[in-house]
Amino acid sequence: MIIRRMLAALLLFAAVWFAVVLYWQASDANPSAGDLAVWLLGLPLALLGGFWLLRWGIRRRREAQAASPMVAAGDDESSPVDNGPQPDRIIHLLAGAVWLRAGAGGEAVAEALAKPERPSLHPQLKDALGLPVFAAAVEDLDPAAVEAPLRAADPDAFERVFGEESLRAIALLDPVAEELLLTALLPAPVEVVADPHGATLHPHAMHHSRSVRAAAPAAAPPVLQIRLLLPLAWAPTARQASGDWLRAKAAAIGYAQHQFEIEVMPVASGNDSWRLFDQLAQAHARDGGDDRQLLLAAHSAIGEASIERLDARRELLVSGHPEGLIPGEGAAGLLFGHAVTPHDPDAPPLRLHRLLSGQAGQGRGASRQAAELLQHAMTTAAQPAEAIVAVFSDADHRPSRAIEIAGAIAATLPELDPVDDARHLGLVCGDLGAVAPLALLAAAAAQAAQADAPVLVFGLADPQARIALALSPAAVDVDDQPPNPAEAATAVVATA
After folding, report:
1. Measured between alpha carbons, how far is 32 from 395 in angstroms, rounded to an integer?
2. To bridge 299 with a disulfide, which of 222, 262, 272, 435 should be the other Cys (CB 3.0-4.6 Å)?
3. What is the rounded CA–CA span in Å between residue 23 and residue 129?
4. What is the rounded CA–CA span in Å between residue 431 and residue 330?
5. Any idea of the CA torsion for 302, 307, 310, 315, to the nearest 10 degrees?
6. What is the tens place of the pLDDT at every residue in 399-420?
7. Are 416 and 455 spatial neighbours (Cβ–Cβ below 8 Å)?
8. Residue 99's closest CA among 469, 460, 461, 443?
9. Of the candidate ranges 184-198, 322-336, 390-404, the one whose mean pLDDT is the lowest
10. d(CA 248, CA 386)
11. What is the pLDDT of residues 375-388, one digit of tens each?
12. SS3 of residue 321 by DSSP
């Protein structure tokens, strides 16, 4: 990086000197010592300074836009910038799935984060100087496995818009989407008839009763609302073709057309995922309803195009730039709904408490502000510090992030070890874009379910914004479960 900057500066000086000397020769000028200093030294230095100031200003503007408050336009009820504890707002997590470098499944990822192995140099990917770069690639991934279904979804678009990185992202998403679609698929309703006395009968039992008069009206099944989050950098045609591919997969699994709706959403960073999650939680608390929400996200920066883009922006981890990013890849999904949805009686849903957002601190104040946000998240969720068993964050290799979260844990959770009880997703999986928040929640949920205790989640990947929320187990009362028609009919047959 330093060598490249020096070469660029030398080229600029050479270009300025050539132009100035050529002008002096053409105008038959006789420059003085002052002219030599101003035009051959001052001018190129001014140009270099102006260029770096302009670049710094553009980068700051992009960071400010990315860190804008995660509130929908005109939405006054979304999570505010940290103003202390807020009234809790719970949404239930029914299931999660994830595939990253750390493993496949929330349990595997949580276990891998407990003993982190940092990404190594990629054997093929190189920066502009021809040096290998660090990358968090998923091993044993076969992008060719999704070529046929993607081509079938949109034959014209496949050859034009799907490159190496997008194919890897969809290949990662394939098993994640399939697992959650199967989990969310409600069983076919059993035909139940009713007698005038209010008893319900199975079709095999109705022949033993002469009091059958009419069939009970069937309630409309809840609609599965699917939101597919794909990188903004992809071509719109690629995102649309990916939505068509997911629609075909849902139909192949057994969904009728009226049972699900798919919306493909372009996302630029993890902030977009946090914002969408917050909006879903708000709508769930305000409107209720029986519809379930499925969030899916896929991302891959394991390719030459992403490496060139990150390197050009000076956002890549290279020699002399320790705050650069390690490109990663992965897919994750979360299924939300009501606590009484009988998906898996042996795995009760988890409560995701209200998301709180705040501004990132600077210098020594960063850990203090992060500690305050963690404390407010615990207070909002009514969870005491001694009950928390772990803290999950998206901190990565950058020393500033590690120091910030370690200081916050030490200040607010004295029972926890800032190193052994912290799980840092970015340290193992690199930069995951919009996938990181979903993967973080899936891994944290697996840990909370296994320990049967609350955990905290803290997002600090963004340079300006911070996120905190708590997850806690929710015991489901059997009396609150909706009646199962098949079981009720079986009971009638047994007593007949």
Report:
1. 57
2. 435
3. 35
4. 10
5. 80
6. 889 999 999 999 999 999 999 9
7. no
8. 443
9. 184-198
10. 47
11. 999 999 999 999 99
12. strand
